[in-house]
Amino acid sequence: MDSPGPNTSLQRLQNVEKRIVRVLELAGGVMDELANPSGSRKDLVSSHCAEFMKLIKDIQMTLREEIKSACDYRPFEKCDYIARVSNEICSKKLEYLAAQLDNMKQTVDEYHDADAV
Q1: Cβ–Cβ under 8 Å, residues 12 and 58
Q2: Residue 91: is its pLDDT beyond 90?
């Protein structure tokens, strides 16, 4: 993981890129070792796999932090889109409910009219 400090977001992302290259090198090294006709060296495969997993976790953590920091900047935080959509959905539900109640009232009225005859 990068040390916190004056690193810019771009620098942190460049470091992630370097780690990704290293991860691919490690994966290639393991593949080469496993394909070795004389057999693979377990200690080398194990160390490559351990470094691979550590780098993957570091990459994941750094990217998560970068995404979170990018999301902290919300140019549309005063936007009411979500509230408007939610209200529109509620309105449609109420319209549907009112229509269903009208149908039920009509059915009840028809039932009472049939009894009156």
Answers
A1: no
A2: yes
